[in-house]
Amino acid sequence: MKSSFKYFVLLLCLNFIEGSFRCDYQYSSKAQAWFKLVPVPANWFDARLRCSQEGAVLASPITPQILAGMRNIMNRSNAEYEVFTGTHATISQGDYYTIEGTSLSNIQVPWAKNEPDNKDNVESCITLNGNGELADRSCEVTLPYICYRPESSHVAVSECGTVDPEYQLDKRTNKCYKLHTVPRNFSRAFLACSAEGGHLAIINSDVEATVLRELFAKYPDAKFFGNFRKDYAFLGFYDWGEKWDFRTVHGETLMEAGYVKFSSGEPNDWTPGENCGGMFRTGLLIDVWCNKPAGFICEKSPGFSLACQAVP
Question: Which of 307, 309, 304, 299 is nearest to 24 (CA)?
Fold first, then answer.
């Protein structure tokens, strides 16, 4: 009876928050979309990736409503404020399109004075300033940016408190996990988990090691993309710049975290660069190369929800 009631409440909650999105975004009823200004500067590629991992896209002023939403969230008192947009020519020099595929020629926004100038023939990304004007800039410079998600792309929020259906709750640990089959290096893996509202998984017990081992087993080599080692995945520990002093991404020693079971002969720093942590398919730990791509496991608490209901 109790389980049936809990199931009913869960369904009710999921239906209520259908169409919601993250609370760190601001909803615009005019644009019918969510916006988030990220003030910490990043290059265009990192900006695009973070927005994507958050379930959004790097915003472009495709319509007057979206332009107004972008300008509203920017510092309107400072005309010099400039952000990256999702409009770029990183595929073919001079061919500018938004991430969604809209041609720059269809964006009715004026250029800033003396723009575009393609300085040094390296300016393949488009920015927007506080006056609502465009400019071309190098994609490698670092600037603030705005992530955007249209209301029309809404999905229901899961019991893991996320719009990402790949996160699954395991009741043995009461944690949600996701195994990424698209390989990234340790830094990019950390970024992806963080953007999704979680962190690289930390094993705190033998039970959790079993949970992650069983999760890994659901993904044979054929389910991973690319030519890389598929017998291990990144986890949330590394040496913090001090050789052999492995600690979690939360600063705990592995002993404090509760699980210090390395595979036989590990850690070994077999070749330089094995400063990051991972897990073999057996559930045992290994030191791995930080800069070589691998699959990775993210973890988040089910009670930690970034989702908010759209409000007019």
Answer: 307
